[in-house]
């Protein structure tokens, strides 16, 4: 069988692209140097895939920031406010991704949302009624030629026409249907250009096909590809889906003139059933997503071979493929020097998945696959019983009852008690938690790890940073303060390091968005809390001020969703184990005088099944209770906050209200506060702080801009329920942006307070 992958990580094994890009943003290197680093990454990855024996090697899976934004620029779908700045093409691209504030203008970035059910964030295309969709860029062709010059005829990868139009935000009266002809013409021209360049295959990524589809959606998809495929000429076209199954459109998809169709047999609950029940056209190649592209555990060759036997009985030619792009896993295990061999042997990052695919090709080519050395070694590995079981934790989870997930008294009574206790002004101001992680902070953590400073020296330094942060917030005039989270490398990794049952990598970075990379911890065994994790820092910070100090925690669902989870127990079981530990921390904070506790669930929606029919049983029926259990034991006067960001919330807004927090802050600024209408329509009970400015952009919002956002909020949210805050933590920002932004925020809130008192 031939082999393929959908895409490969683009950040470099040691985050070379991140560091080069950030140097470029700071003006420390020029565009030529940035492009040099990018090319080095691409050619290294190309050579690696070539040497692995991969038959279908992708190109154009590289991006300086985001592939969806690349597609918007390729199709001329770029708002005029960016193109009119008069910047270079690359800087125009970065202005759309990050915003721009300088001598040529002041524009916000495009909206950013989660990429389906992952922790990757894509930039949302914006299409207005005057948009002229057409082929306008050369990047896919340039990268195809680059690979060709280096001896590889690649399979170019482009976001498909249907997914692009479905993900776009429409400004005006026109909808996706109004752009079918223009989009089809542009994609047809893409295929013609690739034919002229000698490409054999082009991959159109269509993950939107795994979502719930209406009759109108199916009509849009079919009308697009009837036009596109009629002009494909000599190029073979692969429709690549991932993150689920195509149950709503299987018949239409397999009836169209695609030469290959990629289906996900890892997350696609019904993919195998669809092929078995309906067959698969013998004139098309099935790119079978059998190797998990989202998790880091080695795949079971036994399961792969079992699925292949079913597929062989129902399809013709089959290509062994990953379930999705490998950008969702770390690049390589080669940089992991501290993981014990008995642990490391269970893992496969992107580079190791290439080796797995090569082994599967060898195994499936053998006369007796189950007797090959590779198959037997893999089966033995999966038969091992790993350490990490905790019977006490499992027993506690098993004993939980409905009463354990209910906080008393009810919200309305608690709200009155808390208003009286805190006596906060109208439109109380706060931040989401973290403050800028400056070089000295990162240096201190590194010095502690390497033994250059003692733990006492480290704690003295951290207390100094906390005291400076508290003083700064007092000076700015914020109403509810935070300690800054300087001791935390990451909002999930930090807690993982404090919990039993987790293991950690050194350099297993995964791109979250743009230059932001995260290093997810790995759930190895049962989870429990060995000791308090945050109490001493919060108590120290509270001792420095008479204002309320928020204790800052990450919630159980987010900790799980931003970790690499186990595959031997359910996500529900893991989430409730983590909830036990976080509940202990919440109660310890309360017992030590912390009266406001924020339990962030930034990733609540991340593992929400993509199909509505699966929401309750497969996710919400345990995710919401897991959060409720964390805070169900606190006193009425203790105020519980939570935070969520960069997702669609409209369709689960009642479930979010049912989390029974006292205050919730949302990312809202990059989506133009569209969540406000949803809150109003659903009579949202919880007090709320929709973010008034975007912290992922370096631009500083003016006082007037923030006041306008507050005014917009007041049209939909009762004044007594409204908080004023940024849309996310300030960890990734610099002090030079943070201080003026927060100053403008506080001044805007004070003026709004005076005008509405």
Distance between the termini: 72 Å
> How large a portion of the residues is in β-strands, by DSSP E?
5-15%
Number of strands: 23
Mean pLDDT level: 95
CATH domain topology of the largest domain: TIM Barrel
- The CATH class assignment of the largest domain is Alpha Beta
Report the uncertain regions. none
* Main sheet strand line-up: 1-14-13-12-11-10-8-2
Give the overall shape: globular
Structural class: alpha/beta
Total domain modules: 2
CATH structural architecture of the largest domain: Alpha-Beta Barrel
Which range best describes the helical content: under 10%, 10-25%, 25-40%, 40-55%, 55-70% or over 70%?
Answer: 40-55%
Give your account of this protein's structure:
The chain has two domains: about 1-275, TIM Barrel; about 425-755, TIM Barrel, CATH 3.20.20.210. It starts with a strand and ends with a helix. By secondary structure, it is of the alpha/beta class. Helix 27 (about 705-715) crosses helix 28. The protein has 28 helices and 23 strands.
């Amino acid at each position: 069988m031939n082999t393929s992958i959908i895409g490969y990580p683009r950040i470099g094994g040691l985050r070379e692209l991140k560091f080069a890009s950030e140097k470029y943003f700071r003006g420390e290197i020029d565009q030529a140097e940035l492009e040099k680093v990018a090319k080095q990454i691409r050619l290294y990855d190309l050579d690696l895939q070539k040497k692995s024996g991969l038959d279908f090697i992708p190109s154009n899976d590289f991006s300086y920031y985001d592939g969806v934004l690349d597609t918007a620029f390729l199709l001329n779908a770029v708002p005029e406010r960016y193109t009119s700045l008069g910047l270079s093409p690359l800087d125009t691209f970065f202005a759309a991704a990050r915003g721009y504030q300088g001598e040529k203008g002041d524009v916000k970035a495009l909206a950013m949302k989660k990429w389906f059910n992952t922790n990757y964030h894509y930039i949302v295309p914006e299409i207005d009624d005057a948009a002229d969709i057409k082929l306008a860029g050369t990047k896919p062709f340039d990268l195809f030629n680059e690979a060709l010059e280096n001896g590889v005829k690649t399979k170019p990868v482009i976001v498909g026409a249907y997914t692009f139009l479905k993900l776009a935000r429409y400004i005006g009266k026109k909808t996706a249907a109004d752009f079918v002809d223009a989009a089809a013409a542009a994609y047809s021209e893409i295929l013609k250009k690739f034919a002229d360049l000698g490409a054999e295959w082009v991959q159109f990524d269509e993950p939107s096909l795994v979502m719930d589809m209406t009759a109108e959606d199916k009509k849009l998809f079919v009308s697009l590809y009837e036009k596109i495929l009629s002009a494909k000429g000599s190029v073979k076209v692969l429709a690549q889906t991932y993150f689920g199954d195509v149950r709503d459109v299987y018949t239409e998809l397999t009836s169209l003139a695609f030469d290959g169709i990629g289906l996900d047999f890892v997350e696609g609950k019904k993919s195998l059933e669809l092929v078995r029940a309906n067959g698969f056209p013998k004139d098309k190649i099935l790119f079978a997503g059998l190797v998990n592209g989202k998790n880091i555990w080695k795949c079971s060759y036994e399961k792969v071979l079992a699925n292949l036997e079913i597929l062989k009985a129902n399809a013709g030619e089959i290509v062994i493929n990953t379930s999705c792009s490998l950008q969702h896993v770390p690049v390589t295990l080669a940089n992991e020097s501290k993981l014990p061999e008995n642990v490391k042997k269970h893992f496969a990052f992107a580079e190791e998945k290439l080796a797995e695919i090569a082994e599967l090709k060898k195994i499936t080519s053998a006369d007796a696959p189950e007797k090959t050395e590779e198959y037997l070694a893999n089966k033995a590995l999966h038969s091992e019983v790993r350490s990490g079981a905790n019977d006490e934790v499992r027993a506690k989870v098993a004993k939980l009852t409905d009463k354990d997930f209910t906080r008393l008294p009810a919200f309305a009574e608690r709200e009155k008690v808390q208003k009286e206790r805190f006596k906060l002004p109208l439109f109380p101001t706060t931040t989401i938690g973290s403050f800028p992680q400056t070089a000295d902070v990162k240096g201190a953590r590194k010095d502690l790890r390497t033994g250059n400073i003692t733990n006492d020296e480290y704690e003295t330094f951290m207390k100094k940073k906390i005291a400076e942060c508290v003083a700064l917030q007092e000076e700015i005039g914020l109403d509810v303060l935070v300690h800054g989270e300087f001791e935390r490398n990451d909002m999930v990794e930090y807690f993982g390091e404090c919990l039993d049952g987790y293991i950690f990598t050194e350099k297993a970075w995964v791109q979250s968005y743009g230059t932001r990379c995260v290093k997810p911890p790995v759930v190895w065994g049962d989870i429990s809390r060995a000791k308090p994790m945050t109490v001493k820092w919060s108590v120290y910070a509270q001792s420095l001020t008479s204002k309320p100090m928020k204790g800052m925690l990450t919630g159980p669902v987010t900790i799980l969703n931003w970790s690499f989870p186990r595959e031997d127990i359910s996500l529900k079981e893991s989430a409730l184990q983590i909830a036990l530990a976080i509940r202990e921390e919440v109660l310890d904070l309360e017992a030590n005088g912390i009266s406001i506790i924020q339990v962030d669930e930034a990733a609540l929606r991340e593992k929400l099944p993509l199909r509505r029919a699966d929401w309750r049983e497969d996710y919400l029926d345990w995710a919401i209770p897991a959060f409720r259990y964390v805070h169900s034991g606190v006193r009425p006067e203790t105020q519980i906050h939570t935070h969520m960001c960069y997702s669609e919330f409209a369709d689960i807004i009642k479930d979010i209200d049912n989390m029974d927090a006292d205050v919730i802050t949302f990312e809202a600024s990059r989506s133009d506060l569209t969540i406000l209408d949803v809150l109003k329509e659903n009579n949202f009970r919880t007090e709320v702080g929709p973010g008034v400015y975007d912290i992922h952009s370096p631009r500083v919002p003016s006082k007037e801009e923030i006041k306008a956002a507050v005014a917009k909020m007041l049209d939909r949210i009762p004044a007594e329920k409204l908080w004023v805050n940024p849309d996310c933590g300030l960890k990734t920002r610099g002090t030079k942006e943070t201080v003026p932004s927060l100053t403008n925020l506080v001044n805007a809130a004070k003026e709004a307070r005076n005008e509405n008192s």
